[in-house]
């Protein structure tokens, strides 16, 4: 095709359009007009699929080309059929060369532009089919000027607008006109109504208006007329009765009015009459029974009234009868029992009353809609076995909003083709028949708003095609059967306002198509299965007003579940009900920002781990022990406090810890000697005990206990953590072994452990003191924190990552990574504290881990909630990921808004998906950050917070990635 854009087509065009008219074709005998015309046509359009590949300008004749048909003798092109060739573009003037063309068919392409007389020589054409393209604009008024031969024309399914050209009415040979699915407007040219050869006229789906003229009676060849979905008005003229060959009449969706002309009774060949959605009025005439060929009679959505004529019973070919949404009264005529071909019957939305006639459920019928009538009787009759011949073709039954009473027939299972069953809004009683499970084709069941009792049958699992099950507002009892898990197509399950008991079955988590679930206002109990979070398509899940208990599943849909969907369950906990769960969120420790130790040892990181036993002086011990024995109460503490305070004031030396002395009895403890151990040797607390009692010296509190600042005799500050989990701590040997192991961990980004003190009732850990406060304070504590630049933040993230990588390398899991455990050193470097303390606990089980240690909301990896997943160092990676997002966004991992809970990871993940992740970056940076660093860092944070532990990277990988992310230029600036 490209080749044609070179010299040759230009030459061809030049020859055809410039030379030929001037010089006459005889001067150019070697050039075949048809070849030229088609080549020019091809050059004008696009042929992306190469469907015209056989068309070559080197050929002498086009007769073997695809889509081309020649006259056997003259060898001139008489047919061009390029349907569905994927051609696009404008049709040029090439086809004008085809002097003998009889049939032009270009349907189902993507041709564009407006129709002009230059498309082809209309005067020879018998058939023109341009349907299903993208032609647009109006058709020129004289387009059909010389169309004497034209028999069929289709312009269907384009975007043509404007009036139907009047010249179309002059095409005297026309037998078929299809202008449907365009935007033709205005009235239909009068000439068209007089084309008495016309057999089929389809003007449907346009914007045409006006009335059908009386002259229509002349169309005595007319077999099918479709004026549907336009703006036609007026009455159907009497003349229609003269179109005796009419088989199909579709006037639906217009504004026709009046009654049906009596002449229509002569249309005995008519099999399809659709008057749906007009303003026809009056009674349906008795003569309707004369239209013996009728197969479809749709009068729905009009203003017909009165009784349904009993002559309907004469329509024995009738398959579809739709009288819905009119004003019919009375009952269904008994004669309808003779309509033995009926497949679908719709009398819904009328004002009819009376009993449901037995004939309605004969074999053959596929669809029955009698809703919103005042029918009464027993729904039993439909399917009772008393009917010898069960209606096995019945697919749709809609008897909703009537007054049926009695039980649903127990043998409903015989309706093996049933797809949709709507019995809602009646007064049905008794159980849901177990045979419902035999309905393998059933996809939609609505039994709501009846008085059904008993339980949801186990057999429901057999109806595995079910998509919608509505049982609300009945008196159903018992459990939701676990077999519901077999209905794998289920999208909607509504069973609210019943008396269901027992748990929400875990099997529901298998129904991955579930979108809407409403089990509200029942008596369901037990916990919600965690697996429900795996339902990917949930849109609503209403379990309000039951007796459910325990924790709401966390994650996916359940993170954003609306509080009203879970309210009214007093024992349910989780953020959506604004009630913390005891197993996950322990007491007040929870969100304390300063739970960690602090310390700075600017000087020696002594590699000398020389062991020295150090004994506390009496008064120091009294003070420390007093602090430990909280139960003594206020008075005792006050007394001791006074004592200690006086001793510190008067003789600081008395409180000094002296090395080497044995201390044999303690006033408040069991007499075991306390043991102080400093890894560096040289321990000297000058005011240690004082620190432990003085609130002013308290640095913070965490899951493991309070931390106090105190000063060694040499003036060096240290942080002392008093473990409050004493009862959980292991034996002395184990405790010492573990602390010593932690004491050996040295890293620039880890808070160093300098020593410990042990008695059976009191354990202290002595840490390096870090002056700069916690990262939490810097990020969230307006007053106490300093502004962190992007560079500071990056360094904190990187340093934290390095420290965790180091811990993991030593097989130590931190278990408690959070911003309040990351301290900021004097030169802005992060120092991670509180690591590995979980090892001091005698039992490292999930409960202890999640309640005592991973107490901070938002940092806890999901596997803590999942008993089957092993907890590994990947839980630190998760916490680190949350921390990264926290540092970059400046937001807490979980923020409680007025009536909303925002989970940071989800928020950032959502923003990333919507492509506006940059908006999440801490506004305080005021755009002063390199996006090429910040965005990858956020993505890394999100990867670290993957739900599945194995999807999270190792900390060592994280460090590598971060170093790669850091922009080279930035790095150099730092150097
Ligand atoms: C028409 O073009 C559209 C896009 O321009 C394409 O999606 C469609 O498949 C085309 N249709 C045919 C019939 O080639
Ligand atoms: C009857 O017509 C209404 C529209 O007026 C339609 O919604 C309904 O599906 C039709 N009923 C049947 C059985 O075709
Ligand atoms: C729910 O169960 C409780 C006791 O189990 C009962 O008192 C209450 O009436 C039940 N509610 C309903 C709506 O059945």
UniProtKB/TrEMBL annotation:
Its EC number is 2.7.11.1. ATP binds at residue 722. It comes from the Eukaryota. It comes from Prunus avium. Keywords: ATP-binding, Cell membrane, Glycoprotein, Kinase, Leucine-rich repeat, Membrane, Nucleotide-binding, Receptor, Repeat, Serine/threonine-protein kinase, Signal, Transferase, Transmembrane, Transmembrane helix. GO terms for cellular component: plasma membrane. It holds the Pfam family PK_Tyr_Ser-Thr. This is non-specific serine/threonine protein kinase. One of its GO terms (molecular function) is ATP binding. Residues 693-965 form the Protein kinase domain. It is a single-pass type I membrane protein. It catalyses: L-seryl-[protein] + ATP = O-phospho-L-seryl-[protein] + ADP + H(+); L-threonyl-[protein] + ATP = O-phospho-L-threonyl-[protein] + ADP + H(+). The chain crosses the membrane at residues 614-640. PANTHER family: LEUCINE RICH REPEAT FAMILY PROTEIN, EXPRESSED (PTHR48053), MDIS1-INTERACTING RECEPTOR LIKE KINASE 2-LIKE (PTHR48053:SF22).
